[in-house]
Every structure is written in C-alpha cells, then in structure tokens.
User: Fold this.
Amino acid sequence: MMKDPGIHRAPVSLLRLITGLAAIVAALLLLQTLTVSAQQPEPRITIGFQEEATAGETIAVSAYLIDPAGNPIYDAEVSFALDVEFLNVTDDVELGHAVTDETGLALIEYEPRIEGTNSITAIFDGNEVFAPATATSQLEVESGGQLYREFRPYRIPGANVWMTTAVIATVWIIFIICLGLIGWANYRVRTERGGSGV
Assistant:
C-alpha cells in the first residue's frame, strides 16, 4: 500500500512557516532596538581629579554628566572603574558608584594603591532617555609610605621579649618536673612489686 506524499509535506511546510515568522519577529525587535538607541541623545561625561597623588592618599574623583544642550543630568548613576593588568590580561575593577546631583556631579573618594599611571574611567550606562557615555583620564601615583603594617602574631598588654621567654621557660620546667614525678612514681611501684615477690 502506497502512502500519500502530501501527508509528509504538511508538517514540513508548517515548520518552515513557523521558523520564518520567528525570524521576522526577531529582525523586527532588533531593528526597533537599534532605532531606539539611535534616537537617544548622547550625553557628555567629564571625569576630574588631581593629576598626581601619593599611594595611600585619599583623593576625590568626580564626573559631570550633561546632555547635548549642556544641561546637567540629575539622578543618574555613574560608576567609576580602574583599568588593571595582570599576566597580560586587562580588566576593570570597580572603585565605586554615585548618583548625580542637581548640577550633574557624581563624586566618590578613592585611595590609590598601585604606583605609576592609573587609568580611571567614569561610566554612565544610559537610561530610557540618554545613551551610554564614558570618559577616561590618567592619574600618576607616586610611591608613598608603607601601606601595610604587619602585626605581631600575638599581643599581650605589657608583655615584652623577656617576659614571654620567662613564661615559656616556666611552662617547660613544670612539664619536666611532672615527667620526673611520673617516672619516680612508676619506679616506686615497680620496686614495691618486686620487693613483695609478685
């Protein structure tokens, strides 16, 4: 008995139709996203801080966010990042984020710890009105004092080297005396057992 070839054509045609409709919907969504992005005005962001700093010194890092007409953008989140390189791989480390005030100013405090040239970037990710914007500037960091202080493994108020040595020596003397007493007690028990003929 021969099967009708039209039975197999119907599911294949339906699958092609669904695939084609899905591709058209995806293309329309992508086109709409690109159109919305193209229509958003591009703001300007200006990053500012002192040109030189000493490692371990706290400095202010600011960013001004304004629209194309020069008006400040209020209540927008700006993040600050530091470009770092490790084993030939460059990445961003977030330093903090702030929200712009009525003058378009976002401000954070930063304590540089990497000596040399530091690249700091202010990033505005955009919102429903404005497109994203970034700005980068260089900070020269000079070597400062020791940034990390190593603490002693233990600290006892009023303790010094001689007192610590005396305490450790006393503990060892007590330990040796206790061992001697235990040995002497064992010797006495053995002697008494040996003398009684057991």
Notes: The CA atoms of residues 26 and 55 lie 51 Å apart. The longest helix spans residues 161-195. The radius of gyration is 38 Å.
